Amino acid sequence: MTDIILPAQTNNHGTIFGGEVMSYVDRIASITASRHCGLPVVTASFDSLDFLSPIRLGEVIILNASVTWTGRTSMEVMVTIEAESLTERRVTGVSFLTFVAVDQNGRPIPVPPIEPETEEEKYQFELAKERAALRKRRREKFDF
């Protein structure tokens, strides 16, 4: 996903609002999760969004997303955020989100597993298992 940063998207520092970045991240991650499973998905968790450097007015935002892990009905998606000016391209953030596939009644349904192939995919897959366990422990603390 690629877009140019316009004045209405920036704050008084001339950089993109964090909420704008979050919106981009949620959109590309949901598209990626839905494409993986071929089903509608809902955002279950916005685990993290680390801002590494700002994206300035007039720069181009570039987002890349991939499914890093799958559970029975859920998927973790990693989004890398980059900024591009006329002279450079740099990583400006990284985010991890969890999505759940749902049927026409909004009930969770199974998703196809992923098979990590590259060393980087295997590395992210193993880290994702740890993040999934942490999410589970965090949710158990909130017995609603």
TrEMBL record:
An annotated Gene Ontology molecular function: fatty acyl-CoA hydrolase activity
Alphabetic keyword roster: Hydrolase
UniProt cross-references to InterPro entries, sorted A to Z: Cytosol_ACT, HOTDOG_ACOT, HotDog_dom_sf, Thioestr_dom
Taxonomy, superkingdom: Bacteria
Enzyme class: hydrolase
Cross-referenced PANTHER family: ACYL COENZYME A THIOESTER HYDROLASE, CYTOSOLIC ACYL COENZYME A THIOESTER HYDROLASE
Record-given protein name: Acyl-CoA thioesterase
Species of origin: Effusibacillus consociatus
Lineage of the species this protein comes from: Bacteria, Bacillati, Bacillota, Bacilli, Bacillales
